[in-house]
Write a structure and sequence with these properties.
The chain has 133 residues and is mainly alpha-helical. The protein has helices spanning 7-14, 18-26, 43-57, 62-72, 77-131, and strands spanning 5-6, 33-35, 38-41. It has a 3-stranded antiparallel beta sheet with strand order 1-3-2. Helix 3 (43-57) crosses helix 4 (62-72) and helix 4 runs antiparallel to helix 5 (77-131). GO terms for molecular function: DNA binding; DNA-binding transcription factor activity.
Length: 133
């Protein structure tokens, strides 16, 4: 197992910018060691970056992600972390289901408006065709 990772290795592996990684550092999400001007990230930092990116893909805020990550190392530990994660997943799922219902209603409305517009176009086309004969 690799002992340290450079900023270049991690930005390439996770397809993120150095600016993003430095932002995570400024937020206290990763804590690289320094060798002169070089930042050295531990396997734990690498895991945190992976968790941060997964959390962002799932729609969690950085504050929520940070809270879940920090809970792992303190009481109530992993149990509390998992409980919080499950609560956040349930809330996120409900939020997404609500958005899905809104989208479905909007799509139905669009279908109605489209159907009405097509019917009116057909009427106008028929009326115009009759008038030209």
């Amino acid at each position: 197992m690799q002992r340290y990772f450079t900023i270049t290795q991690l930005t390439q592996e996770f397809d993120i910018t150095t600016r993003t990684l430095r932002f995570y550092e400024a937020q206290g999400l990763v804590l690289p060691q320094r060798r002169g001007r070089q930042r050295l990230y531990t396997p734990g930092d690498r895991t945190r970056i992976k968790l941060i990116l997964r959390g962002k893909r799932l729609g969690f805020s950085l504050n929520e992600i940070k809270e879940m990550i920090e809970m792992y190392g303190s009481s109530p530990g992993e149990t509390g972390q998992l409980r919080l994660l499950l609560e956040r997943i349930a809330a996120r799922r409900e939020e997404l289901l609500e958005k899905q219902r809104d989208i479905e209603l909007t799509l139905l409305e669009l279908d109605e408006v489209e159907s009405g517009a097509k019917a009116r176009m057909s009427e106008l086309h028929t009326k115009m065709h009759v008038e030209t004969e």
